[in-house]
Amino acid sequence: MTKRKEGRKFNRKTGQRRAFLRSLTVNVIRKERIVTTEARAREIRSLVERAVTIAKKETLAGRRLLAARLHDPVAVKKLFEDIAPRYKGRNGGYTRIIKSGAARKRDGVRTATIEFI
Predict the structure, then answer these.
(1) d(Cα 94, Cα 68) in Å, to the nearest integer?
(2) Distance from C-alpha of 75 to C-alpha of 27, rounded to nearest angstrom
(3) Belongs to which family (predicted)?
(4) How many C-beta neighbours within 10 Å does residue 94 have?
(5) N- or C-end of the chain: fewer Cβ atoms within 10 A?
(6) DSSP secondary-structure letter at 109?
(7) Residue 101 falls within a domain, yes or no?
(8) What do you get for the CA distance between the two ends of the chain, in Å?
(9) Is residue 75 assigned to a domain?
(10) How far is 84 from 54, CA to CA, in rounded Å?
């Protein structure tokens, strides 16, 4: 029996898709709020929340793991020094997706804002 594949493809090959999702994740961490499509916001939500969970542990191994995953030392530093300490007493649910009524002009896709709570 075939099972449904997890994750969206975004009409990209594997390497392009990984880089695309990585850049969106880094942008959310650096800016703490971005406006994107609903599908993209849903897809990067889990990546951002996993990164915050790793950063909350404050270990060297976690710092190296995030440095390898994100490829952005500024984002890793911000995660460990600013974002993770905010959520010490919280067990998940660090991001919020707010759907906007507006659609993109070029293709009509609905937009959403993903931000930290």
Answers:
(1) 22
(2) 8
(3) Belongs to the bacterial ribosomal protein bL17 family.
(4) 21
(5) N
(6) -
(7) yes
(8) 40
(9) yes
(10) 9
Q: How many CB atoms lie within 10 A of CB 100?
A: 11
**pLDDT, tens digit, 9 for 90 and up, residues 3-19:** 888 888 999 999 999 99
Within 13 Å, how many C-alpha atoms sit on residue 105's CB side?
Answer: 0
pTM of the predicted protein model: 0.89
Tokens (6 digits) for 8: 């969206």
Model confidence pLDDT, tens digit, residues 57-87 = 999 999 999 999 999 999 999 999 999 999 9
Tokens representing residue 97 in the block:
């997706």
Q: Is residue 2 part of a domain?
A: no
Q: Which two tokens stand for residue 42?
A: 């849903």
Question: Is there a domain that residue 83 lies in?
Answer: yes
Q: Which structural domain range is residue 88 located in?
A: 14-116
User: Exposed, middle or buried by CB within 10 Å (0-12, 13-18, 19+), for 16?
Assistant: exposed
